[in-house]
Amino acid sequence: MDKKETEKLLKEVVGIQKEIVALKTYRTIPEEIPRYEGCANPGLCTQINEVLEDGSVFSITRENNVCFEGLIATGVCQVDRQEYRDAVEGFIDTCPYHKDIDTAMRFYEKCIEEIPLPPVENACLVVGPLLKIDDPDLVLIFCNPKQADILIRAQSYQGNLVQGYGGNGGCVFNIRHAYVTRQPTFSTSDFPWRMFVGLADDELTVTYPWEKLVEAAQYIKPIADYIDSLKDIFGGDA
To answer: How far apart are CA 226 and CA 218, in angstroms?
Structure first.
């Protein structure tokens, strides 16, 4: 199934309303793709919102972001432990992500233990609509819980367990996990991700490695039909 067929499936069968966003890493910066102008605050979540708003496609590097988590998640750059601690100390009073700095660092270590950092081997990350990016690494699908159920059931139908996350770490949960493990994931993510991406209160993020989405596509319509049939049989909303 190609990109056009996949997008049609997700929008017409699953009912996805927002633009389907793709991410792709490059070992060298592609000259044929526009480079992001300026510096996004905080970072990738803001840039994803720009894609949702105007369908733009661009490459980004560390200089284009205040927050580097999306680039760390895809092996474009790294931040050492002390640099991370210094950054947290700078905002923890105004943005109480954790009760104190020691708790923040314990959480940081837990995230690395659970979702390892990828090696830094890429020059940039390209962000844009699915239809504008060839052979993407990841596909971000913003959806409601019913739609997420359909997308995740396509994995359990094949016997695969899907791991999801919640809490503090939009890029860690939504991007790093899927990029490193090459497995789909879902997440309520955190407030900054939700706010800067532009998610509605009833939306969450499902992330699919492109190859896994292609593999699962054949099962999505039968699963969606099954869920709708349950609504007809038992009544109410699924």
So the answer is: 14
pLDDT tens digit sequence for 160-186? 999 999 888 899 999 999 999 999 999
**pTM of the prediction?**
0.93
Place of tokens 């940039």: 124
How far CA 77 is from CA of 27, 31, 52, 119, 121, in Å, comes to 12, 20, 25, 9, 8
pLDDT tens track for 17-54: 999 999 999 999 999 999 999 999 999 999 999 999 99
Q: Which amino acid is at 3?
A: K
What end-to-end distance do the CA atoms of the chain give, in Å?
A: 27
Say if CB 154 and CB 9 are below 8 A apart.
Answer: no
Nearest-CA neighbor of 127 among 230, 16, 34, 6? 34
| SS3 label, residue 159 | coil
CB contact set of 136 (below 8 Å; sequence gap of 6+): 22, 23, 24, 130, 210
Phi, psi of 145 (to 5 degrees): -60, -40
Task: Return the amino acid letter for 28.
Answer: T
Rounded Cα distance between 148 and 128, Å, is 21
- With beta carbons less than 8 A apart as the criterion, state whether 45 and 194 touch: no
Any idea which residue has 């997700």 for tokens? 10
Is the separation of the CB atoms in 148 and 220 below 8 Å? no
Asked if 162 and 184 count as a contact pair (C-beta separation under 8 A), the reply is yes
Q: Which residue has the tokens 């390892």?
A: 116
Lowest mean pLDDT among 43-47, 94-98, 127-131, 227-231: 94-98
